[in-house]
Amino acid sequence: MSAKTSGELCKKDKLIKRSNLIEDGNPARYRLQTTTDNQNQSKSYRKIIFGERDPEKAHIIILIVGETGTGKTTLINTMINYTCGVQREDKIWIEITDDQSKETSAHSQTSIITVYGVYIPESSLDLTIIDTPGYGDTRGTGHDKEIARSLQHLCKSDNLVQQINAVCLVIKADQTRLTDRQQYIFDAVQCLFGKDIEENIVLLFTHSNGLPPKKALTAVKEAKVKCAVDEENFKPVYFLFDNCQSETLEEEYQTTQEQSWNLSFKGAAQLFKFLEKINSKTLNLTQEVLKHRKQLEANISNLQSRVQEIELKQNEMKQTQEALKKHKQDVEEKDNFEYTVEVPYKVKIDINRAASKKALCCTVCEENCHYPGCWWVTNLAWCEVMRKKHCTVCTNKCHYSKHVKEGKIYAIKTREEKMTYEDLKKKYENKMSDYESLVSKLKDELHELEKEKLKLLIEAYHSVESLEKIALNTGSLFILEHIDFLIEKLKEIKEPEKAEHLENIKETKNQESLENMKKSTKK
Prior knowledge:
Layout (H helix, E strand, L loop, with lengths): L2 H15 L1 E5 L4 E5 L2 E3 L7 E7 L6 E9 L5 H13 L7 E4 L9 H4 L4 E7 L5 E7 L9 H17 L5 E2 L1 E7 L7 H11 L10 E6 L7 H9 L15 E3 L13 H24 L3 E2 L1 H43 L1 H5 L5 E13 L8 E4 L4 E4 L15 E2 L2 E2 L11 E4 L1 E13 H7 L7 H36 L9 H13 L3 H27 L1
Parallel strand pairs: 2-6, 4-7, 5-8, 5-10, 10-11, 11-12
Antiparallel strand pairs: 1-2, 3-4, 7-8, 9-13, 14-20, 15-16, 15-19, 17-18
Helix pairs in contact: 8-11, 12-13
Protein name: AIG1-type G domain-containing protein
Family: Belongs to the TRAFAC class TrmE-Era-EngA-EngB-Septin-like GTPase superfamily. AIG1/Toc34/Toc159-like paraseptin GTPase family. IAN subfamily.
Organism: Triplophysa tibetana
């Protein structure tokens, strides 16, 4: 027996000793004896680790994304077997994945992302795979936003994941189009990253027969999925995998099953060869995108309330102007008179629990700074809208200690109030008692309110513009009513070019949705 063969047997034996037998057979299925960091339910991710990370060794980090049923679990285990050096002749199959449905309901709510780490001393590299189970499933967009937040938390709080080598989009090789859910998933994932990650996004086609997946590639092209492109043939970078490696070997199908094994391990070999050539990307820009995204959404939401309040104040002043005009003679003769105006005021109301459990509000400005979607509870300084312990959203950019997190938000309402000429004079401290002075003062205040409104709208537009420059996929980020609101107000303040730019973003996204709907109908 050669030294090489002896070494391979020794490696295989070591793996088996550090694994638990799941099912005897050909191949025999083993699950690696891992350590699981899933006891702390406050974490929004969990880690399943085999071995100990070697800082001197090459470290490959992969993010796996795909719809349920595309074969992600087998794909992850295929990469693990390839990294472990398992051969078909070994007649074993190594697994690291488990069933999250067995977790307690309390924990399954927080363990949205799973980080698998395989660190084998005999291997030339260490491998970390980040899986996003349930992305795009029936739990809806609220669950998907939790995944985005979990990924952000993982990048910020875990030293293990500070860069990424590849984002792998998993698709069945026989698909003729992307489903609406797949389109949604891929759009949502691309929204998480900066533009620098595009050359690290690759396609993994599962359930492949080894032939070029022409129809699936056409579906990817039609869906306008951003990914790495082969410089020679100008086609998306992709790798083929079958999903039969763990199935029991049968003599009459030996040739077919051998082809299946070889296809998948060839795909894994090509993928890791590609990853050796491509530069990994730090997640600094990704974190910046996520932060900008949260601040933008919070800014626009806050902006709507502030513009609404300004417009209600403007309406109150216009009603006062009309009253002065009507009672001009009374003013000149300094006689008291009464008039009615609609006065805006703020109240605290209970929030929609389905949208957000709690909201971050400023008690000084009496504004909603982060709603919906605020999730930090223990320390308000950690909220996404805070920078250097001060809020980036509320009017006075107040210290985080001036904020509260509760199940209520501020709402603006109006009520009719009786006012008198004496009340109006007191408001201006009797300094403006003649008609012309009062009218002039009201005009000045209306002008100041209009300037403030203009400033807020331009600031919001620049936030969108800034995000567009760094985000890989901008269109999916915006709630359409926010975009519509901003477009309408930009037109009002005579900024047609800015309004047109936002309309183009909206139109592009609507056109993509329409095309996907037509394909779905034809299917």
